[in-house]
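assembly run, all chains below
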Amino acid sequence: MAFQDIQILRINYLRGPNIWTYRPIIEALIDLGEMEDHPSNSIEGFNDRVNAWLPGLVEHHCGVGHRGGFLTRLVGGTWMGHIIEHVSIELQLLAGARAEFGKAREISKRGVYKVVFRTEHETLGRASFKAAHRLVMSAANNLPFDVAATVEELKAIVDVLCLGPSTACIVDAAMERKTPFIRLTEGNLVQLGYGSRQRRIWTAETDRTSAIAESISSDKDLTKRLLTQCGIPVPEGRIVTSADQAWEVSQDIGLPVAIKPADGNRGRGVSLNVDTEEGVRAAWLAAHTVGAGWSGSEENVPVLIERYIKGEEHRVLVVGDRVVAATQGETAYVVGDGVSTVEQLIESQINTDPRRGESEIFPLDVIKFSNSSRGEMTLLEIQRQGLEPHSVVEKDRQVVVQRNGNLNLDVTDKVHPDVAASATLAARVIGLDIAGIDIVTQDIGRPLHETRGAVIEVNAGPGLLMHVKPAVGQPRPVGKAVVDHLFGPNDSGRIPVVGIVGTEQTTQLAQLVAWLLHLSGHRTGLACKDGLYMNQHHLGKNDARGFEDSERLLINRALDAAVFETTPLHILNEGLAYDRCQVGVVTNMPETTQILMDQHDIQTPDQMRTVIRTQVDLVLPEGASVLNAQDDAVVGLAELSDGEVLFYAQDANNAHLSAHRQHGGRAVYCQEGFVTLARGDQETPLFHLDMELIARLLKQGLHINTLLATVATGWSLGITPLLIRAGLKNFGQKHDQVSKDLARMNG
Amino acid sequence: MEVSRIRALRGPNLWTRHTAVEALVRCEGDESDLSSRADFETHLRHLFPGLGQLSPTDRKIPLSMAHAVEATTLHLQIQAGCPVTFSRTTATNENGVYQVAVEYSEEEVGCLAIKLARDLCIAAAHHGEFDVEAAIDQLRGLDEDIRLGPSTGSIVNAAIARGIPFRRLTEGSLVQLGWGSKQRRIQAAEIDATSAIAESIAQDKELTKKLLHAAGVPVPLGRPVTSAEDAWAAAQEIGLPVVIKPRDGNQGKGISVNISTQEGVMTAYNTAKSFREDVLVERYLPGSDFRLLVVGNKLVAAARRDPPLVIGNGKNTVRELVEQVNADPRRGEGHATSLTKIRIDDIAKNRLKEQGLDENSVPAKGTRVILRNNANLSTGGTATDVTDDVHPEVAARAIAAAQMVGLDICGVDVVCESVLHPMEEQSGGVVEVNAAPGLRMHLSPSYGKGRDVGEAVIATMFPNGDDGRVPVIAVTGTNGKTTTVRLTSHLLRTHGLRVGMTNTDGVYVNGRQTDSGDCSGPRSARNVLAHPDVDAAVLETARGGMLREGLAFDRCHVAVVTNIGMGDHLGLNYISTVEDLAVLKRVIVQNVAASGTAVLNATDPLVARMAANCAGEVIFFGLDTHHPIIATHRAQGKRVLFVEDDHIVAMQGPHSVRIPLSEVPVTRSGAIAFQIENAMASIAAAWAIQIPWETICKGLASFISDSQGVPGRFNVFDYKGATVIADYGHNPDAIKALVQAVSNLPAQRRSVVISGAGDRRDDDIREQTRIIGDAFDEVVLYQDACQRGRVDGEVLKLLRQGLEGAKRTRQVDEIYGEFLAIDKAMERLHQGDLCLILIDQVEEALAHITHRVEAAN
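ok done. output:
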């Protein structure tokens, strides 16, 4: 008898900080049905099957806190929701993605669980969840399950939709220094920071990477010419059309030389390291023959004679004006045994290296004579040695398979200052802020003029993986170097962000706060129930509290500050659009609603607290929480704030407020009709509630609590009390009135 | 007649400030005087009616074939549309040989023009035929191929107007503007700050739309749809009317516009679907296409772009209507004009078909018949300037769009009824942003005012009127150039500038040698001016390069001429007298900027006379305090340097600075007169670019002229108590100065080691030993490695001749080989002796001497 399928009631993707975690997650609601009565240990063979399919589960510590923790839970008996969570995570890890967080919680309805786990991409998360569901059901019903095929499918999603390794290492470095990021496409275009403080990267290109410089770097001849002008050694070369000329030029340039057909970009007809007259003439003929084949004419076939640069290829990574990493390539070769063919020797002597693999995450490639350009190079390399892939190599003969094939040895610390100077100059000459400089030299630890080494290429958008995962040697923090290049030492790329939650006049509060920020000189964005505003420009009346509209403010480069109104439902449905905020405001602890109960099982005040606390959890250490001291449940959130807390209340004698002031805290309240700012026992009356223009606002329906919250928020943002007062007086007034009043204030 | 040695003078030169092609023209017999061949000019004019006036620049010489080549070269280029005016022919001292120089605007065109001119003149001389129209077409075609395109051209022209120097880096449109650390680059309408990421974003329409939407810029929102029903649902969400099209479609295939009914949506969906699986529904934007050009944070031009169209009159067919439009003489064939002829090709025929027409239909009166969807000028579209109409809100959205994508030069495509009103009021929007937008439609629109967009681009790259120049100090003269260059560089480096220096030993940038060998030519100078780390350039400017290619710069801030004296290398390249030489060296003075300065040796009459050719200020220097030129200049309140009471005095009006010679080590406390002159020249150069006096004094004190600092320039060694001086001096003036300098040093016995360079005139070689014979007891003559065209022993013979009747020399030895000669002289030295070694292979000889000196100590 087979178990009935576990029902998937809903899969939500929470794109921003949420009640579970700061990062995007999949949140699925499932109904175990009859499986609720069948924990893992009650189904015969279930644990063994799951274990056999996913041996990596042993690494899941789970709540137990050590290796094998999750397995202990399986053996002890755990429920299917919990298992699906771990299987989803494990499948993502197998597919090469990251997924370190997960939870499974039963809701108030028996057998119904919320299963939650981290994912790098919505599509990947959904697919993993569905695969995990299938896997668990197959294990329960003792049916076969093709893990390898499933992982392959997920890998395909990872390859297309997750960040590539170079971009990922920059994004990781950004997160490390608390700089937020937004992916702008499914590809590798990423925004670091918010609003006007943002920068953009696209793999290892930055928004300052010059398009002209990129086109220069892709023109090898032009690159060489520009480098030579500035005294950087390059393999100087000249075009010849006869054997005599070839020999003459070779002597001019200095032996040894490389000889190749001038318009070839493949390796055919190429001879390297030629150092005799005989050799030059023979090599010329080879290049001439190939070139003549292409042009269909024997006449004036251009053959390029270049100085042959001895040594290994190195990749020197320049970021900004610094060398931040360098790797060295190695010549790969095999040794014959008198029996095996070249192809077999490559398989047994080279491709067995565990560092070699087919995907991007391996530091080294496998070597194949496939139809890739790399494979073709390998073929030409052995053909130059008189061999074919199927040739048997005599015993002890060394065959070079790849020259400078892989850059795999970290040599950052060896780079001679003179070489570093040449590399940074090369990047400057081409005009690139980030460049991979390819240098061939016999010793990167000596100046190029001593080793007769040369810069052979300058690459825009260089891959970073080889520095992050060198096969040998120390990994280099190149992602950090890129982020440091983009942002100053104390610049997190953030703009002031204010988040407001509650149910009382949050829209008016958000508008007032945005107005104050505007007056203090910030181009301010506002996403509220009333629509989206950018720098006081109203873009439409549709409710803009959703994730997508909110995110527009953070993407807009023309905004210096942003104010967001939110609700419990928005937090639960999508998560918040920003990762952290400068100021988090809670006006009151909402009551739960039918919709929250039905859709999200928010039943109790405690559950509501877990929703609302999200706003306070996001406050930055250098920021502030602005809390209504008249609501005990809101006051209870104060302990969660990483930043300062500001309380507000109408009554100066509010107990929480007084206690807070006793510890030197800041508070806003009314005292004899005066709205008053206080820091500890130091009090500053700001304005009287009867003041005409203020009274006007109250008459229009503005609640005193909202007024106080506005003042407190403005103050927490560092807006001067005088400007706060002027701003409130002028809110909603005509422009000329505003400017007159501000002029009076400044005068 | 023979035309040979065609050279492109790529910078200011002996003949002109402009680029010019120069050739040697050798005339035979009566070709040198055309007055005896009256029919020649007739034939020439018959073949080339466009030939201008034919008359010699120099009235003293008769009109020759060379003059005919000159005029023909010039006028062929003019007829081909090149903006050139200068040409000149001069007779050389060789009979019948002329130098012809003609301005060019494109090097290859100039070189081709002179060859065609030669063929044309030869044809005329032999009463032959020559197809001059074909020649002009060839030149015009070549010019159009290689000259800068209109976009790049407009920016470069704006740069020129600003005085910003430029240099093309490729045959394409990559151009360097400015020099050294102040240089920038452009490529068509891209600048070096244009972000590659921004360009990629602009190419991704969906991403662009997302970003613009985020920035509050109206865009035609839409979404992909999966079925006809979904399309209708989408249309209702977005708001009618809509556009339905295949995603990534091209050429407008499968696109339906302005659909506002359910039925229409369904039909349109199926049409689109037949081209591609992915179908998009987008808001329809009514109105015309506008292109708004944003440069930096400003809107600089706007144009309405209309597709090629004709308006029916109820009588003529479409074909006839197109012919009528094409009859407009402003409509040309290529890219060069502001209007292009409308073509009736397959695309046009398909477009007609969509309107239910073909080329033979007669459209009703007033019907707009569109022949193509795009409005490119090159396919017959028109551009109408509307810059002055753009509403500030429209401009603000265009700027926001450009900045959101991150483009500093951006063509924003807007669709709306009119740019007179905000886009939001007329449901208009931005449909595309373009990196590297074409500028032609703004430079020369089909209708309306052209806009100076080039200047707008330059203004963002070079704010505040900056001209992108780093100070350039050019140094020339017969002797002292290298020391002056090195000392001047040292003074500038002391001021913290990263100096690019060229001289006969190599190229140095900020103290690092980047090239070696004789680098006193224009190629090395250009390299220095292209180096991103150069804040100031000090360039030794030798005659060879000036003759071969002209100068590497259009003008300099400071030109220093140390001296001409009796000259050097006379008799080469038609420079046969010191006066000729002065005219050549004067070129750098002639090209001093109006705000610049010439530093001239007042005591050398040929140099002092160059003052008249300087557009800028002049600083005179000289050892002689009472020299009349210095005295006069000083009296006029202008800047002078002279020596007084063991001080170098720099004076301007009532102000003076006195630097004790004892604090200028290179002069050996004033003992070496020529080093005082070099020091004064360097001080003046630094003074001219406002290096503070404190820095100048500090720099003078720290400048060491040893074999490391200034190899081969008065390097003094102590060898077993004797003084050995090594110097590269190799002409009579240098020898004279050296003799003067060493006679100030006490010594018992004086000896000298000397050779002669074979490429000097016999007299010049003899003169060297003649000077020496009166000052040294012993002379070791040697034959140097390279005889430069002389037969074995010839130079030695001349040197010996110079010693005949010497007043002081008692012993003369002849040695083959520089090192052996040095060994011989040094072996003989005793304590208190002095030996001057005139070295030839500088580096090797200095190493040899140093080695011996070290071994002895």
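Chain B has a mean pLDDT of 91.

The radius of gyration of chain B is 36 Å.

not gonna interpret more than that til we talk
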